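Researcher: Please translate sequence to structure tokens.
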Amino acid sequence: MSDATEDFAPHLKPYADQINGLRRVGHQLWNRGWSLGTSSNYSVVIDRNPLRLLITASGKDKGHLGPNDFVIVDEHGKVTPTNQPKSSAETLLHCTAASRCGAGAVLHTHSVWATTLSQHFFQLGGLRIDDFEMLKGLEGITTHQSSCWLPIFDNTQDIPALQAQVVRYLDEHPEEKCWGYLIRRHGLYTWGKDLAEAARHIEVIEFLLECMGRTLRR
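Model: Translation complete:
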């Protein structure tokens, strides 16, 4: 995705490797049909103390991200420096995953299966996936005799309210390992210690969601 002639903005040039990594992942997810139109958003942590993230700018085609289609934000989701494009509308959700779940990278997709299953299982509060071999692709799982619980939160344009739902869930379920969550009729959020792990988690969970969806159709 990179080209030696590409011109990164001065404040983004130190993060060219991270940007090109996100661009490659974005193109792959777009190719899979999981990030169509201008949907989805992706980020990586570039500093921990204080927390800073590099995140996709709002309204960008994720299959064809340019070198400057990214924004640096602080732990509160504020763009810094201020002379940057608008960041993703859901920036605060990335900040929460980084600060509360130790995420080094966060990926959000809008696949058909994540969108439809988030509606189907919404009244149950989440979706549990058991006994699939592919569960071993999730960090910390070593046997197919395991399960993954994906909580489902209601969709809203009030992102601070959605962030509060996620934080409340994490506070109330400290014993439940959380690899990601669904937003009703919206899509999937997942993360990893780095971009490679986050990308693996996206592939694994999207595969498992499709398996669940196809089973329901029988």
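Researcher: Any highlights?
Model: The longest strand covers residues 41-48.
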